[in-house]
Write a structure and sequence with these properties.
It holds the Pfam family HD_assoc. This protein is mainly alpha-helical. 60% of the residues lie in helices and 4% in strands.
Length: 439
């Protein structure tokens, strides 16, 4: 069982288990020492990277997801005896594997958050029939683009960590797929899943846990940032605003994954109103307990909601798939009410932060930057002269399998927000930095 989980497909010819360090600890070291991990500090979470020292970036978000996931994994190990039987490689929860998956889950996100992802996908689909998607890009980075000593390409991670990152076990090029894995990496992922005898469409328990902890962080931490920024105002006028209610309800109804939450079982508008009312009431109670200190209240609110969600995570049977499911659980069954509550808080963060008109103005600027960068690089004969030489060397070594449009998307998506703006300024602004600055 250990060998199949610790197998490294990138090192198939010479891989030997380390006698000095656990294999998953080696994965952890490779991830946090990678340039991609460091660049997360310069990529937007909700507010643009550099907006302020307080607000989360992709890096701090990933670390917080990892902390939540590791603690929950340790508890689930203690409280679910079947895990110790290790009957199936996908029905195991190792805290280090979950932590590695959480660290790497946002590696594939481009600069400027969801807007950067949206623009790259639109351009690639429109002009070249190719898709761009952050989860798929994760695997392109981890299995191909990243470099480490002694390897031709990628970080050569273990099978357990690769499948722990694989929230969407599908070939993204299939008709109608919005998320998944690019064909170039899917061949290896599909082979690993076959070796593990994974049911079609099912993720490992470790991937499921990472995914839910990402949702927990999003629905709690992003709201904390929104309150700090004044985008979410903790008063009745804000929380009872009919336009806010309407926007949250519309986001729920327009979500392509809404079927997972059983919204048909409840009056959506009524539940949204109740959750927001309860949230404000809890804020006012904690605000009083904290002697009117807003910063303490924000942290305490966040901590209580994280604890409420995380302590409810457990493993139950998934009879529809003959598999196991990590879920928010109450009385031995999935707690759909709590799941819907978390979804409402996520939508609250989305409509107040992402849909704020000032944020949308910045996103429009980001869209222009990504589009102009693309236009500058997509003509191969001209673009190759304004790209870093090491990128061109990589392309020339692999151009038999690496199309120029995909290469350009890889280059732009690897940029931080600030670096994208720097390159844009060098190409289009009247003044730029010194040519001796290192790229």
């Amino acid at each position: 069982m250990n060998n199949i989980r610790k197998y490294r497909p990138g090192e198939a010819g010479s891989s030997k288990l380390s006698e000095e360090r656990d294999e998953f600890e080696r994965d952890y070291a490779r991830l946090i020492q990678s340039p991609t991990f460091r660049r997360l500090q310069g990529k937007s979470q909700v507010f643009g990277a550099g907006s302020g020292d307080y607000y989360r970036t992709r890096l701090t978000h990933s670390l917080e997801v990892a902390q939540i996931a590791r603690e929950v994994a340790k508890r689930l190990e203690r409280t679910n005896p079947f895990l110790s039987k290790r009957e199936h490689p996908g029905l195991i929860i190792d805290p280090t594997v979950v932590e590695c998956a959480s660290i790497a889950h946002d590696f594939g996100h481009p600069p400027f958050g969801h807007k950067g992802e949206e623009v790259l996908n639109h351009i690639l689909m429109r002009d070249h029939g190719l898709k761009y998607e952050g989860n798929a890009q994760n695997f392109r980075i981890l299995m191909f683009l990243e470099k480490r000593a002694g390897s031709e390409s990628g970080l050569d991670l273990t099978a357990a960590v690769l499948l722990g990152i694989n929230k969407y076990p599908f070939l993204i090029e299939e008709e109608g797929r919005l998320k998944g894995v690019y064909a170039s990496e899917w061949e290896i992922i599909r082979d690993l899943r076959s070796q593990w005898n994974m049911p079609e469409g099912c993720s490992t328990l470790e991937a499921q846990l990472m995914d839910l902890c990402d949702d927990i962080a999003y629905s709690t931490h992003d709201i904390e940032d929104g309150i700090r920024a004044g985008k979410i105002q903790m008063n009745a006028t804000f929380f009872e605003d009919q336009r806010l209610m309407r926007h949250v309800v519309m986001e729920i109804l327009n979500d392509p994954n809404k079927h997972k939450f059983g919204w048909e079982q409840v009056n959506i508008e009524q539940m949204v109103r109740q959750v927001l009312s309860d949230y404000l009431e809890q804020w006012e109670q904690i605000f009083s307990e904290c002697n009117g200190e807003e910063s303490r209240t924000r942290r305490e609110m966040k901590a209580r909601w994280v604890s409420s969600f995380a302590s409810s995570l457990d493993i139950i049977d998934d009879p529809d798939r003959s598999w196991k499911k990590v879920a928010l659980v109450k009385d031995g069954a999935e707690d759909m009410n709590l799941l819907r509550t978390m979804e409402i808080l996520k939508k609250l963060a989305w409509v107040t932060l992402i849909k704020d008109f000032r944020v949308l103005r910045l996103q429009k600027r980001s869209e222009i930057i990504v589009e102009r960068l693309w236009d500058s690089f997509i003509d191969k004969e001209k673009g190759q002269w304004i790209m870093p030489p090491d990128w061109i060397d990589s392309y020339e070594r692999r151009n038999a399998t690496w199309s120029w449009p995909r290469f350009v998307a890889d280059y732009i998506s690897g940029m931080t927000d600030a670096y994208a703006e720097k390159v844009y300024a060098e190409l289009f602004a009247s003044k730029s930095g010194s040519i001796y600055e290192m790229d």
